[in-house]
Write a structure and sequence with these properties.
The protein has six helices and no strands. The protein is an all-alpha fold.
Protein backbone atom coordinates (compact mmCIF):
# COMPACT_ATOMS: atom_id res chain seq x y z
CA UNK A 1 0.00 0.00 0.00
CA UNK A 2 1.18 3.45 -0.80
CA UNK A 3 1.48 5.94 2.02
CA UNK A 4 -0.40 9.06 1.10
CA UNK A 5 1.72 12.21 1.03
CA UNK A 6 1.15 14.35 4.17
CA UNK A 7 -1.08 17.32 3.42
CA UNK A 8 1.04 20.16 4.88
CA UNK A 9 4.30 19.58 3.01
CA UNK A 10 5.10 21.77 0.06
CA UNK A 11 8.38 22.73 -1.50
CA UNK A 12 9.82 26.08 -0.48
CA UNK A 13 10.51 27.09 -4.04
CA UNK A 14 14.26 27.65 -3.65
CA UNK A 15 17.30 25.47 -2.98
CA UNK A 16 18.61 25.05 0.56
CA UNK A 17 21.56 27.44 1.05
CA UNK A 18 25.02 26.08 1.74
CA UNK A 19 26.18 26.29 5.34
CA UNK A 20 28.92 28.81 4.53
CA UNK A 21 26.39 31.14 2.85
CA UNK A 22 23.93 30.91 5.78
CA UNK A 23 26.63 31.61 8.36
CA UNK A 24 28.00 34.46 6.32
CA UNK A 25 24.60 36.17 6.23
CA UNK A 26 24.05 35.70 9.97
CA UNK A 27 27.28 37.32 11.01
CA UNK A 28 27.62 41.03 11.16
CA UNK A 29 30.95 42.68 10.53
CA UNK A 30 32.94 43.16 13.72
CA UNK A 31 34.92 46.32 14.13
CA UNK A 32 37.46 45.36 16.75
CA UNK A 33 39.62 48.05 18.31
CA UNK A 34 43.03 48.52 16.74
CA UNK A 35 44.97 47.98 19.98
CA UNK A 36 44.55 47.31 23.69
CA UNK A 37 44.61 51.00 24.61
CA UNK A 38 41.72 51.68 22.25
CA UNK A 39 39.79 48.67 23.63
CA UNK A 40 40.16 49.96 27.21
CA UNK A 41 39.05 53.43 26.15
CA UNK A 42 35.93 52.03 24.46
CA UNK A 43 35.14 49.84 27.48
CA UNK A 44 35.49 52.81 29.87
CA UNK A 45 33.26 54.91 27.63
CA UNK A 46 30.60 52.18 27.47
CA UNK A 47 30.71 51.69 31.26
CA UNK A 48 30.46 55.44 31.88
CA UNK A 49 27.36 55.66 29.67
CA UNK A 50 25.76 52.74 31.52
CA UNK A 51 26.54 54.32 34.92
CA UNK A 52 25.12 57.68 33.78
CA UNK A 53 21.99 55.99 32.50
CA UNK A 54 21.58 54.06 35.77
CA UNK A 55 22.15 57.22 37.85
CA UNK A 56 19.56 59.17 35.85
CA UNK A 57 17.12 56.28 36.23
CA UNK A 58 17.68 56.17 40.00
CA UNK A 59 17.16 59.92 40.35
CA UNK A 60 13.91 59.66 38.36
CA UNK A 61 12.79 56.81 40.63
CA UNK A 62 12.65 54.27 37.78
CA UNK A 63 12.04 50.86 39.40
CA UNK A 64 14.50 49.15 37.05
CA UNK A 65 17.45 51.15 38.36
CA UNK A 66 16.56 51.37 42.06
CA UNK A 67 18.40 49.25 44.62
CA UNK A 68 16.49 46.20 45.88
CA UNK A 69 15.60 47.89 49.19
CA UNK A 70 13.68 50.65 47.35
CA UNK A 71 11.79 48.55 44.79
CA UNK A 72 8.14 47.65 44.76
CA UNK A 73 4.77 49.28 45.25
CA UNK A 74 4.87 48.91 49.04
CA UNK A 75 8.15 50.81 49.31
CA UNK A 76 6.87 53.48 46.92
CA UNK A 77 3.80 53.84 49.15
CA UNK A 78 6.03 54.17 52.25
CA UNK A 79 8.17 56.83 50.53
CA UNK A 80 5.12 58.82 49.45
CA UNK A 81 3.56 58.50 52.91
CA UNK A 82 6.68 59.94 54.59
CA UNK A 83 7.35 62.58 51.93
CA UNK A 84 3.79 63.93 52.10
CA UNK A 85 4.21 64.91 55.78
CA UNK A 86 6.43 67.18 57.83
CA UNK A 87 7.81 64.97 60.59
CA UNK A 88 10.06 65.86 63.56
CA UNK A 89 12.76 63.42 62.47
CA UNK A 90 13.72 65.44 59.41
CA UNK A 91 14.58 68.40 61.67
CA UNK A 92 16.62 66.37 64.17
CA UNK A 93 20.05 66.64 62.52
CA UNK A 94 19.79 70.37 61.73
CA UNK A 95 18.59 71.04 65.30
CA UNK A 96 21.47 69.08 66.82
CA UNK A 97 23.96 70.88 64.56
CA UNK A 98 22.53 74.26 65.55
CA UNK A 99 22.66 73.40 69.25
CA UNK A 100 26.26 72.15 68.96
CA UNK A 101 27.36 75.28 67.11
CA UNK A 102 25.67 77.50 69.71
CA UNK A 103 27.49 75.64 72.49
CA UNK A 104 30.87 76.35 70.84
CA UNK A 105 30.41 80.10 70.40
CA UNK A 106 32.42 81.98 73.06
CA UNK A 107 29.53 83.77 74.75
CA UNK A 108 30.01 85.48 78.11
CA UNK A 109 29.96 83.03 81.00
CA UNK A 110 26.36 83.73 82.05
CA UNK A 111 24.98 83.27 78.52
CA UNK A 112 27.15 80.18 77.97
CA UNK A 113 25.62 78.61 81.09
CA UNK A 114 22.12 79.15 79.65
CA UNK A 115 23.13 77.73 76.27
CA UNK A 116 24.65 74.59 77.82
CA UNK A 117 21.59 74.12 80.03
CA UNK A 118 19.32 74.42 76.99
CA UNK A 119 21.60 71.99 75.14
CA UNK A 120 21.52 69.36 77.86
CA UNK A 121 17.75 69.72 78.35
CA UNK A 122 16.66 69.93 74.73
CA UNK A 123 18.77 67.16 73.19
CA UNK A 124 17.13 64.28 75.11
CA UNK A 125 13.71 65.83 74.55
CA UNK A 126 14.31 66.06 70.79
CA UNK A 127 15.60 62.48 70.70
CA UNK A 128 12.49 61.18 72.48
CA UNK A 129 10.26 63.16 70.14
CA UNK A 130 12.03 61.67 67.11
CA UNK A 131 11.78 58.13 68.52
CA UNK A 132 8.07 58.48 69.25
CA UNK A 133 7.51 59.91 65.78
CA UNK A 134 9.47 57.05 64.18
CA UNK A 135 7.44 54.39 66.00
CA UNK A 136 4.22 56.16 65.00
CA UNK A 137 5.27 56.38 61.33
CA UNK A 138 6.42 52.74 61.26
CA UNK A 139 3.16 51.46 62.74
CA UNK A 140 0.95 53.64 60.59
CA UNK A 141 2.75 52.75 57.35
CA UNK A 142 2.61 49.02 58.15
CA UNK A 143 -1.10 49.21 58.94
CA UNK A 144 -2.04 51.23 55.85
CA UNK A 145 0.21 49.16 53.56
CA UNK A 146 -1.41 45.95 54.83
CA UNK A 147 -4.84 47.39 53.94
CA UNK A 148 -3.78 48.75 50.56
CA UNK A 149 -1.55 45.84 49.45
CA UNK A 150 -2.97 42.57 50.78
CA UNK A 151 -0.73 39.62 50.02
CA UNK A 152 2.41 41.75 49.48
CA UNK A 153 5.55 41.24 51.55
CA UNK A 154 5.57 43.94 54.24
CA UNK A 155 8.80 42.83 55.91
CA UNK A 156 10.86 45.87 56.91
CA UNK A 157 8.51 48.48 55.45
CA UNK A 158 7.93 50.14 58.85
CA UNK A 159 11.66 50.44 59.54
CA UNK A 160 12.17 51.72 55.97
CA UNK A 161 9.57 54.47 56.54
CA UNK A 162 10.99 55.36 59.97
CA UNK A 163 14.51 55.71 58.58
CA UNK A 164 13.28 57.84 55.69
CA UNK A 165 11.39 60.07 58.12
CA UNK A 166 14.61 60.78 60.01
CA UNK A 167 16.47 62.00 56.89
CA UNK A 168 16.68 65.61 55.80
CA UNK A 169 14.19 65.99 52.96
CA UNK A 170 16.72 67.34 50.44
CA UNK A 171 19.07 64.41 51.05
CA UNK A 172 16.50 61.62 50.65
CA UNK A 173 17.05 58.99 48.01
CA UNK A 174 15.14 58.32 45.81
CA UNK A 175 14.08 61.94 45.51
CA UNK A 176 10.61 62.74 46.91
CA UNK A 177 7.83 62.62 44.31
CA UNK A 178 5.24 64.35 46.49
CA UNK A 179 5.32 67.63 48.39
CA UNK A 180 4.20 67.96 52.00
CA UNK A 181 0.43 67.87 51.78
CA UNK A 182 0.38 65.18 49.10
CA UNK A 183 0.64 67.24 45.90
CA UNK A 184 3.04 65.87 43.26
CA UNK A 185 6.40 67.55 42.85
CA UNK A 186 6.25 69.85 39.80
CA UNK A 187 8.44 68.74 36.89
CA UNK A 188 11.59 70.77 36.32
CA UNK A 189 12.28 72.19 32.92
Amino acid sequence: MDDPKPQGTQSKGRPTPKRSEAQGRRRSPVTAPANRKEAYRLARERDRKQRDQAREGMLRGDEKYLPARDRGPVRRFARDFVDSRRLPGQYFLPAVLLIMLASMVPFPLEIRRWVLTAYTMSLPLVMVLVLVSSFYVAGRVKREAAEKFPGENLKGVGFYAAMRSSQIRRLRFPKPTVLPGGKPVPARK
